[in-house]
Amino acid sequence: MGDAEQKGIMLMQEAEKKQKGAKGFLGNLFGGSSKIEEAAELYVRAANSFKMAKKWAAAGESFCRAGQLQIELGSKHEAATHYVDAGNCYRKGDPNEAIKSLHQAVTIYTDMGRFTIAAKHHITIAEIYETELVDIEQAIANYEQAADYYKGEESNSSANKCLLKVAQFSAQLENYEKAVEIYEQVGISAMDNSLLKYSAKDHFFRAAVCHMCLDQVNAQICVQKYEDMFPAFSESRECKLVKSLLKACEEENVDAFTQSLQEFDSISRLDQWLTTMLLRVKKSISAEPDLL
Q: Which of 70, 91, 209, 245 is the most buried (most CB within 10 A)?
């Protein structure tokens, strides 16, 4: 056992004694709240010692205890900060505990009306579900909650970033209607913004790809709608690609479909999401017919 870990254990023990002393009759009589403050400080010191020793679970627990005491003292901001620190420590070894701690912080922040910072921590929770726990439905739920909080605070750019993650994951789960709705919504909002105008083309492209996964006939109608609504999309390589792919689908020509993708990809690399979605479309036209 290293010196830092040993110091952390000793500080935890000292904090526990202070905490117990504050709860007795004599503690209440002789400055119980000051003893709780001292205990909270000791827990934080213990947590920092455990961090130095890379004992992340112990550090997380110490920060949680400090957070609980700060709630007793009525210091909501301090309590939320400690729960966030606990979440950061737990994330290095126990993502479920990290989520639990971050949710406690979010509860405090929303109670205080701090919705922007609550949204930020919902994003962190979503990222844990996305990368460490691979629970895409929970990731979607937390990105949506973050988007709602950002919208409520008129942080529309931040809300749209979260919604684009929702669209991406919804399409992965084959909820194409939801993905289309978001891509169109964000694309339309970007059209009228000189700084975001260029990105509208990409949003409409992704909406069109989702339409192709859902219904190739309807996709043609929607692509025409995007062209009418946003002439810059009509002139883009992305729009030309979608049209050539739809033609290949109509003709059930897998080779033409593949060639169009290769030509586009040789100039503008398709990302993993687009590759996955377009592979689904390709499989739909190359599938063998059912045998009777």
A: 209
Here the tokens at position 236 are 């883009």
Which amino acid, one-letter code, is at 228?
Answer: D
User: pLDDT, tens digit, for every residue of 189-205?
Assistant: 999 888 888 899 999 99
Classify the C-alpha dihedral 154-155-157-159 as positive or negative. Answer: negative
Report the distance separating Cα 126 and Cα 135, nearest Å: 9
Domains, the chain, ranges and CATH? 1-113 (1.25.40.10), 205-285 (no CATH)
Tokens of 265: 């990809």
- Predicted TM-score of the model (pTM): 0.90
Task: State how far the Cα of 138 lies from the Cα of 37, in Å rounded to an integer.
Answer: 36
Report the percent of the chain where pLDDT is more than 90.
85
- The tokens for 185 are 């919504």
Determine the residue type at 73. L
* CB neighbour class for 254 (10 Å; exposed up to 12, middle 13-18, buried from 19): middle
Please check whether residue 71 is in contact with residue 97, taking contact to mean a CB–CB distance below 8 angstroms.
Answer: no
The CA–CA distances, whole Å, from 31 to 39, 62, 83, 132 equal 13, 23, 26, 44
pLDDT at 63 over 90: yes
Q: Tokens 């008129």 correspond to what residue? A: 154
**Cβ neighbours of residue 58 closer than 8 Å, sequence gap 6 or more:** 5, 8, 12, 46, 47, 50
Residue 240 token pair: 């030309």
Is residue 223 a contact partner of residue 242, using CB atoms and an 8 Å limit? yes
SS3 of 288, please? coil
CA–CA distance, 47 with 189 (Å, rounded to integer):
45
CA distance 78 to 226: 49
Asked if 126 and 114 count as a contact pair (C-beta separation under 8 A), the reply is no
Structure tokens at 189: 């909002």
